[in-house]
Design brief:
eleven-stranded mixed beta sheet; Aminopeptidase; four-stranded antiparallel beta sheet; alpha+beta; globular
């Protein structure tokens, strides 16, 4: 097998047909529409601190492997926090940025990162080739580091074989156990959790809030305006930079269609709140929520309970509602591990960070044990 590597500076240069030949497990964040939409809308690119620098392998001119990658001028929008590492470099007057990142921008969602062509006879060799290309790039450009975030199991051997540092964290995911409806799900919960959810849902209903669930092709200009307004309001309320443009949301709504799920809450005919979900591979992913007015229970209903109902109604296996959020535990979500991998070029920093990560692993394991004491489900098999 003779491979050639190439840096792809514009995702749109990859033909959609060539992209569909890669095994991205129907993950909507790895769709051609999502990745090209980020660049073409200006949500990433010049001035954003995200410079597309995708790693690609070709065999006889055919695309056989790809890792979505970026040269980063900061650590925003990654959800695997390395600010302390950057600060340590700065205190020694050494450059931490730019660094190389393999990830999906602004998306704390696990998925394939070292993508290979379906039915290729040597997928593991292709993954190893992508890792080799990344490490060579770090050396050639004299970058501080390479980071591969939210990695699924099939990519781990190629990363671990090269000695990359491993980091773990926990997210909260909901799993569909073949529930007939929302009440069936509630019956599996402990009594206090069940009563609290019913109280929250009742509060929203009594305030006269109604919900519409729209797929991408049903989203019009008014709904797009409202989606983006809520997105902007939420990010600015927390002092964060709202990087995604309205044109990005418009492009993926059209392209993803039934994998783009927009829930809009209204009262008296006026839109009040929204949640945006993406779907694929049997999973619903919660991405953005926002509202024009805070009401009791509105966030939980719009962002969580509507998503759970959608999964039950459409037979989806799981609901990943995003990063962090211990409050999700009492609402039927369970902790699941996420992993990222890190190559640090400077041996001194690599040793120090490795020591820190060993302690962090112990803290994360203790945290998981603490969460186990708050399992929201009945385990009496009654």
């Amino acid at each position: 097998m003779t491979l050639s590597s190439r840096i792809v500076g514009e995702f749109a240069s990859i033909e959609a047909g060539d992209w569909e030949a890669l095994d991205h497990r129907d993950n909507p964040f790895l769709s051609h529409a999502f990745l090209s939409g980020l660049e073409q809308s200006g949500s990433i690119g010049p001035g954003s601190g995200w410079t597309p620098h995708h790693l690609a392998l070709f065999e006889d001119g055919q695309l056989v492997a790809f890792a979505p990658s970026y040269l980063k001028a900061h650590s925003h929008g990654e959800f695997v926090f390395d600010w302390a590492w950057a600060d340590a470099y700065q205190r020694l007057a050494l450059p931490y940025y730019p660094k190389l990142l393999t990830a999906i921008p602004y998306s704390p969602v696990s998925g394939p990162r070292l993508l290979t062509r379906r039915s290729h006879p040597a997928p593991e060799a292709l993954r190893e080739g992508l890792v080799k290309t990344a490490l060579e790039l770090v050396s050639e450009y004299e970058l501080s580091s390479w980071h591969c975030n939210f990695v699924q199991a099939e990519d781990r051997p190629a990363l671990e074989s090269r000695g990359l540092l491993t980091r773990q964290d926990w997210q909260f995911h909901w799993f569909n156990e073949g529930f007939a409806d929302f009440d069936d799900f509630l019956e599996r919960l402990r009594s206090r959790k069940r009563k609290n959810i019913r109280r929250e849902r009742r509060q929203v209903h009594e305030l006269g809030v109604e919900f519409r669930c729209l797929r991408g092709s049903e989203v019009g200009e008014a709904e797009l305006d409202f989606l983006h307004l809520c997105y902007l309001r939420t990010f600015r309320a927390y002092g964060n930079h709202p990087a995604l443009r309205r044109t990005f949301f418009a492009s993926i709504a059209t392209a993803l269609d039934d994998r783009f799920v927009l829930v809009i809450a209204s009262r008296g005919g006026e839109p009040l709140a929204m949640s945006l979900f993406l779907a694929g591979g049997g999973v619903l992913y919660g991405r953005y929520w926002g509202c024009m007015e805070e009401l009791p229970g509105l966030h939980f209903e719009t962002a969580y309970y509507q998503g759970i109902e959608y999964c039950i109604r459409h037979g989806l296996n799981a609901f990943e509602s995003g990063a962090q959020g211990e409050h999700k535990l009492s609402r039927g979500f369970l902790p699941r591990q996420t992993r990222s991998y890190h190559y640090v070029r400077d041996e001194r920093f690599r040793a120090a960070i490795s020591s820190h990560l060993e302690r962090e692993w112990a803290w994360m394991d203790e945290y998981r044990e603490q969460l186990a004491h708050h399992d929201p489900y009945r385990r009496d098999d009654a």
